[in-house]
Amino acid sequence: MDTINGEGFLDHAWAQGVFKKIRHKKCDESRPACVRCSSTGRRCDFSQEHHLQDDPSPIQSIQSIPVLLLLRHPAPNLDLTSRFESIQSLEFEFFTLICAPEYGIFFETPFWESLVLQSAVREPCIYHAALAISTLTRNHYFPTSHWYDPTTGARSAAGYSMMQYNLAIRYLNARLSSSVPNRNLTKLTVLTAIVFINLEFLCQDQVSSSRGSWIAMHLRGATCLLRDLKSRFGAQPDLDSEYLESGVAYLRRQAEQFMIRDGLQ
Fold first, then answer.
1. How many Å apart are CA 265 and CA 197, to the nearest integer?
2. Number of domains within the chain
3. Fewer CB within 10 A of the terminal residue: the chain, N end or C end?
């Protein structure tokens, strides 16, 4: 049974099972198929009104979640000018114009586009996950036989996407290791889990059972954190938390359909 630790933050088992791991792909596929499906959970609408607030707490070490950490130093606040280079620039623009608006449609509220886009600009973990989602989506619409990124050495869209996925995991771990657990950081972690689930739905080159296990772990973790938010701050209505909770519930239903379709239940 998933539990929340004494600090009201991440479950120890979930931490070891999810964010301590690096996501891998089969390395023998130069051009894996990437099929976009209705259960990817990607859609939004840009609004300045709703977003996760920056962590108001001072940056310091968290003793309550040491098992999470792959990086022992804070993730730098990446400058936009350093992000928008070569393929990264192209992929983030594609995410902004094509992928992000899909969250608002999928979750049936414009809140989600604002939430994802603003978080991607501020948080490296969301930014790199967005690059991974954009790469797989764009490769589906515009497949390229000769794919190469000189910056990372990736020779396929799937390979580049997996690199960005791993970077997202590392940056989230660094963010968690350098900040005091609080409401906003917990919400950011739930949002990251939602985006990771969306990404897993896109990883069609992976064995279904492998994707299913990752999706299930992210769902369990997000559910745990939402339960903690409700128990600690239930008396204080919070729009962000309500949207995150409905998003996780919707993805859970999509995941159940995925499991049934692929005979994993």
1. 18
2. 1
3. N
